[in-house]
Amino acid sequence: MSRILLIENFDDGPEPDRVRLFLDRAGRDYTVIRPHAGDSVPRSAEGLAAAVIYGGAQEIYQTDRFPYLADEHALAADAVRRDVPLLGLCLGAQCIAWAHGADVRPHPDGAVEFGYYDLTPAPEGQALFGGPVVMPQWHGHGFDLPDGATRLASSALYPNQAFRLGSAWAFQFHPEVTPRRMRRWQAHDAAPWSAPGAQDRDEQDRRLGAHDAAIDAWFMAFLARFFA
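The chain above was modelled as a monomer; its predicted structure follows.
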């Protein structure tokens, strides 16, 4: 029986993210693997109904330090070859880009996005987003578009925030992050408060309060289509 595979690359705490909340409410079975904790990653998407690759503190090209990232690259490429629905979130989006020959690198000015940022849909992304949106972010790397990919959204600091490549959706942003997870991020030792581009705590809290309900509604609607 085909299955849904969730690949977690970072310990974000025990509470479920929005993907797991959606699947639990829908009564869908899924398997969670945590390669950073020793779980093996399949290099083939055969037998999968869908897969999600989450974010993490790793850089997607650091296969010497994190050998399992090479397996994630292989899985991402195979999922697209097999037309298996694949969703990449932050590091997962970079994985899809990297696996298909695109470069992933830090912002040239060292700028990060940490907080809630405005996204502008590309013309091809209007149907997906419906207009400008605000999304949670925590990253300092961006990606080029792979050959054949369609850009869906951009931000002021990072021109490639979302793309579609065959059966794969790549989101640099984090629509899966609930308010509880954002609070965990804010308290994390690695939180980049002093980095250029990062929002301060007041701005993050204000934007969380103003936009979280819309983020949740948008992502739940997206997941209903993605996992259909």
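The chain has a mean pLDDT of 97.
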